[in-house]
Specification:
By secondary structure, this protein is α+β, with helices and mostly antiparallel strands. The protein has two domains: about 1-30; about 35-110, Sandwich (mini-chromosome maintenance (MCM) complex, domain 2), CATH 2.60.320.10. It has helices at about 5-25, 85, and strands at about 35-40, 40-50, 55-60, 65-70, 70-75, 95-100, 105-110. Strand 3 and strand 4 (about 65-70) form a beta hairpin. The N and C termini lie far apart (about 50 Å).
């Protein structure tokens, strides 16, 4: 006697497809339209993601370099030892953030509706 029958496999595939579709829908925020740059917990710059810009933000370890292009932003260079915020890459969706915690600099994308309610770090 087979453990799974044709109907069982169909239900499993259908359920798996539904879970994937709901996860993609629920966790994808809208495209961002604004970037917020913070240093030491204070907002130092808020700008639109409409044209190319570059910023150099001072932190306790040195200068963090931020690049903005139409529709996306990233931390290009940071003096932090592990480079986690640089490895985050380009941010495009509302609610995404790159946190350079040793240097106390953060970059957050904002839009109409974020992909999650809050961000705790």
């Amino acid at each position: 006697m087979a453990i799974l029958r044709a109907g069982d496999i169909g239900v499993l595939l259908g359920g798996s497809g539904l879970v994937v579709a709901l996860a993609l829908h629920a966790w994808n925020g809208d495209p961002g339209n604004t970037v917020v740059i913070r240093a030491a917990g204070q907002i130092v710059q808020t700008t639109a993601l409409t044209h190319p810009q570059r910023f150099a933000i001072d932190g306790p370890l040195g200068i963090t370099r931020i690049e903005i292009e139409p529709g996306r932003a990233r931390v290009a260079a940071d003096p932090s030892p592990r480079q986690l915020c640089v490895k985050q890459g380009w941010l495009t969706r509302s609610g995404e953030a790159a946190l350079c915690l040793p240097n106390q600099v953060s970059l957050e994308i904002r839009g109409r509706s974020p992909s999650h309610d809050s961000l705790v770090y």
